[in-house]
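Consortium newsletter contribution from the modelling node. Members have asked for a concrete example of what our holo predictions look like. Here is one, prepared for the farnesyl diphosphate complex that several groups have been discussing at recent meetings.
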Amino acid sequence: MAPDQCVIHSGSCSNKPHNVSSPLQQGGNGGFFGNPIGGNDWNVGACINSLQAADACHRLENLLDSSSERDVALPRHVAIIMDGNGRWARRRFLPRLEGHRQGAKAVRRAVEFCRRRGIKVLTLYAFSTENWQRPKSEVSGLMRLLSEYLDSQLEEIHSNDIRFTTIGDVQRLPEPLIAKIEQARRKTAQNKSMTLNIALSYGGRQDILNAAKSLAKAFTEGTIDEDAFTEDALSSFLATAELGDPDLLIRTGGETRISNFLLWQCAYAELYFTPILWPDFDEAALEAALEEFRSRQRRFGKTSEQIEREPGDP
Ligand code: FPP
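And here is the predicted structure:
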């Protein structure tokens, strides 16, 4: 199917996840300010309920998204580990930062492509908790690129009805960048066509740990009992609570590992590894990843026979 033939889901939900004021947005790991464990005065039980309602709504939305209204085999949420910038530069005898600069151009292409193609959520791994260990000059160069990206792209993101969010410990970023991120988040908060979610200072283990601590805190405070320790409850405290889990995880650059990215959330994601270096990852490469996704059968632990029998069967 040609990209412009894709039918985009047009259903709406009165309790859309992004309308829910979640602890994550207010001060959680996935939010911009604060920490989910201490300091914020929110009712954990109510938040779990609210996030579970959001999650249920989100699942309903997924169901609608995968109905006949829409290209059934299109991933709703695509997550990308953008690897290979350094090698791209080295092969051309250029500084690593030039690789990242070309990587930022590939980000623009990917966002535009996914928006046009009807992807609802695009999560990009731009900076991991481990990336802080890189040389200072590379870290500050990356921060500058992120800042320039927002300066140059925010208007376009907004005019394309794209909502901008981040996950990760954004508080560790330089103050001016935090302010720009917050401004981008506020400006685009009501946009509906796609969510561009950038993982910054993000680590999957940290995300799970934060969620587990939040649950434990709720338990010790008596807000929830032991029965509330469910997968859904823990998911509701992850940074991606209101975005849903990725359907497709792409890693460019030839490595075949997840590198601490969305560890819990990728339990059932289709994994797609390509040797293409991120700066070279263009529309055709993205389309090939979608094509591969389309060819996979997602069984979620069931048998092929069950999956093939399911639609419309009594
Ligand atoms: C991994 O490649 C890439 C990163 C750690 C940074 C990703 C950043 C960008 C794509 C640019 C800015 C981002 C946005 C959202 C505007 P690597 O450096 O590890 O590559 P290598 O493995 O070839 O050395």
